[in-house]
Each structure stands twice: as structure tokens, then as C-alpha cells.
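$ run holo --ligand "magnesium ion" --emit C-alpha cells
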Amino acid sequence: MHAEYFNGFYRGEILAVSRLMSVVERGGEEAEAILNEIFPKVGRAYRVGVTGLTGAGKSTLVNELTRRCRLRGQTVGVVAEDPTSPFSGGAILGDRVRMQDSTGDEGVFIRSIASRGSETGLSACANELADVLDAFGRDIIFLETIGIGQLEYRIRYSGHTTAVVLTPDAGDDVQSLKSGLMEIGDIFVVNKADRAHAQRYADDLRSMLELTGSSREWLPPVVNTVAVKGEGVDELMEAIERHRAYLSDGGRFEQKRIESLQNRITTVVDEKTKELFWKRDHTKRMLEDLLEEVVSGQKSPYQAANEIIAAQPR
Ligand SMILES: Nc1nc2c(ncn2[C@@H]2O[C@H](COP(=O)(O)OP(=O)(O)OP(=O)(O)O)[C@@H](O)[C@H]2O)c(=O)[nH]1
Ligand SMILES: [Mg+2]
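-- output --
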């Protein structure tokens, strides 16, 4: 299956990676077959998660970081969750694509995936697409994800270093930051530092991190950037390198790898058992019958759920 793609893939052909990624993105058995095949080659790349609210400047930052990686001779892969469809493409995405096209640089591979309309599967898919780029031999992989809902928690397992991108926008005070975002950040970026109150925002953020993270071995640094001008991006790059060095110390990197693999297994089991569970005719019928009893007030939803679970063959 897909033998010609694999051959191309192992020869380093961009078109072949692109095709394999499309199959992986569609999911199902074919996707699994590809992921199984490439697994022995996965694990060499360094993965950097870049997360934050829509419009924070993630793509602009990834662009700047990519440029610097290229200057160092590193090959780069990018998987970006695009809030709009990848086909309509935002302006920034357009810029990126043009940048890649104009330089004809095969050392940069960018893939965007739509995040709208899908609830849970997406980040898992981003991880898997990153696996393809990893097996392809990319040195650095950036995963751009939107930090809303549960997605930001997932990235924890995919990025070795996670940078949370914030902006000092009016009304956004540090106290109101979601704890989810606070917990996943290895590095905090205050982007759009050309805007008013940026320094105060960064200082507040730093105080809060010191307060909550004093027991942690790694105190996340706060880096101010003006992504559109490339300001502060070298400092961000250094912060990423420092965190990488920190991870490589004392087996932390390996620990993270193990956690990430465990998470991968449990996620697949969760998804598959759920799917199998509701596929059974018996379960569907039970649900219909019990629903009537719940609607008429004879049973509570919890009693109904427990009955459905108890009736499953073990
Ligand atoms: N003033 C200012 N604008 C910026 C800065 N960085 C990015 N922008 C602008 O902010 C807008 C959003 O930037 P993107 O890089 O697309 O942000 P994003 O976080 O990738 O957005 P989504 O992918 O849509 O979530 C663009 O118009 C950028 O030009 C900055 O440092 N200062
Ligand atoms: Mg973006």
C-alpha cells in the first residue's frame, strides 16, 4: 500500500510527505498503517508547541522562528491549526506559503489543518502529522495550536517545549488568564509588545508565575516580542534552547517521551472503545428503552448510564 509514496518519502521527496500527510489526516486504517510503518523513525525531531488565542501572532512568530532555524541550518516542519479553513487561508498563511514558494526552500514544510467544525480529534491529528514530518527527518517541528477549549491541554503531550503566546490587549489582565494556559507554558511570550501596557502586562505575568511556580524546577521565562518586526525573537529562540537543555538534563526528556507515548495509547483506546461501544445494536436499543424511562421520570440519567455499562459483555 502506498509503496510509491513510501519510496519517495524515504528518498526525501516533499510531494510524498504531503501525500502521506493527507492520508494520515483522513484517519482510519490507512492512516494507522502509515503511522505503524514510520513509527521506528519517529522521535528525532524537537517539537515546539506554539499556542495562544486567535490572532495573538502565533503564525508570525513561527515564521520568524523558522527563518532563524534555517539560518542555523536546521530543517523545519510546521503543523498549524488554522481557525479558518486551510483552503480559504488567512493572510498570514498566504504570506507563509508565498515565502516558501519564493525561496523554493525545501527545508521548510508547512501544513495547515482546519480547526473549525471538529471538536476533539484535531490536536491528536496534529501530533500524528508531526510524526510524519519527524520520520521524514525534520530537525525542528512547530505545532501551532489555538489555546481554547481542551486543545491547549493536549499540546502538552506533543510539544517538548510549549510557548504560550499572549498579548497585552485592553481588558486582558493577567489575573483572568485561564489556568489551563498558565499550566502548560514552558515559556510565555508577550507579543505585540509595541502596544500600550505591554511592559506592565509582562511584569504582572512574571510576578504571577513566580508566585505560583516557586516550587517548580523550571520557572517559565517571559519574553516580550514584536513579531511583525522580528523583535525579541532571538530571545525567544534562546529561551527555547534553554528549555531544551533543561529537558535533556536528568532524564526529563525521556520521561516526557514516555508520558507522551502513554497519552497516545490511552487516547486511541478511549476513542476506539467509545466508537465500538455505541456501534453495538444492543447498546443502541438499551439507550432507546432507558431514555423513555428517564424521560418519564422512572429513572435518573445516572441509573440509566450504569445499566448500559453493566450490560456490556466483559
Ligand atoms: N501590532 C502588532 N501586530 C502584530 C504583531 N504580531 C502579529 N501581529 C498582527 O496580528 C495579526 C494576527 O497575526 P497572526 O500571526 O496571524 O496570529 P495567529 O495567532 O497566528 O492567528 P490565528 O492563527 O488566526 O489564531 C496579523 O495581522 C499580524 O500582522 C505584533 O507584534 N504587533
Ligand atoms: Mg495562525
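-- notes --
The pocket of magnesium ion (ligand 2) is lined by residues 58-59, 80, 92, 144 (CB under 6 Å).
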